[in-house]
Write a structure and sequence with these properties.
By secondary structure, the chain is α/β, with parallel strands linked by helices. The chain is built from seven helices and nine strands, in the order E-E-E-H-E-H-E-H-E-H-E-H-E-H-E-H. The protein has helices at residues 28-31, 48-58, 77-92, 111-127, 142-153, 177-182, 191-200, and strands at 4-5, 14-17, 23-25, 43-44, 67-71, 96-98, 130-134, 157-161, 187-188.
Length: 202
């Protein structure tokens, strides 16, 4: 799919053309869903990272029995590895997962890529039925806590993954009271148990 900058003063205002020739904003959350009038001299979005991010926004999930949003920190190798392993296990079990780290923001990322990542996360949360939240660490990652809160408000089913061995002998390393309440005060130490729980919902 091709994308076009619709406003030279707003890098995030990009549009796509449907099969009838009408132009629509990509980021419906910000710009709405109504068609927009565009001129023929619009500049096409040509950056590879930008196009990949926009494609992911347009279709955040693949095919699967249920859409599962993978919440969690992604700022170091260990976090990303854990998230990937869990996502792969769910995909192997037949579920469609959205893994935010599959579109990476780095120090050179454009504003369009950063905005695409924000809006695709927002869209993917709205489209999911289930959330698997990686809550490892002494404290829950701030972005993960925000995702859990949003999902709770939207009545999503939330499973908290916490494999940290400190859980087994020190109460101080469990979830804080409020976040714990949002996940029914239950954590799972492995993805296999979560998959069994999800299968039990079907």
């Amino acid at each position: 799919m091709k994308y076009y900058y619709a406003d030279e003063k707003d890098e995030s205002f990009v549009v796509y053309q449907d099969e009838n020739g009408a132009y629509f904003p990509v980021f419906a959350e910000k710009y709405g869903t109504e068609p927009v009038i565009c001129n023929e001299n619009m500049k096409e979005v040509e950056g590879k990272k930008e196009a990949e991010a926009l494609d992911k926004y347009m279709n955040p999930y693949g095919k699967g029995k249920k859409n599962i949003y993978m919440a969690g920190p992604l700022f170091n190798e260990g976090d990303r590895y854990s998230n990937q392993i869990n996502s792969d296990a769910l995909r192997k079990a037949g579920y469609a997962t959205f893994l935010p780290q599959e579109v990476v923001i780095d120090k050179d990322s454009s504003k369009l890529v950063k905005d695409a990542c924000f809006y695709m996360d927002f869209k993917a949360i709205n489209l999911c039925q289930i959330v698997v939240a990686n809550c490892n660490g002494i404290e829950v990652d701030s972005g993960t806590a925000a995702e859990i809160g949003m999902c709770y408000a939207l009545n999503k089913i939330i499973f908290a993954y916490k494999s940290d061995v400190r859980n087994y002998y020190n109460e101080n390393y469990k979830l804080n009271n409020f976040v714990g309440g949002l996940v029914n005060n239950k954590t799972y130490s492995n993805i296999e148990d979560i998959i069994r729980e999800i299968e039990g919902l079907e």
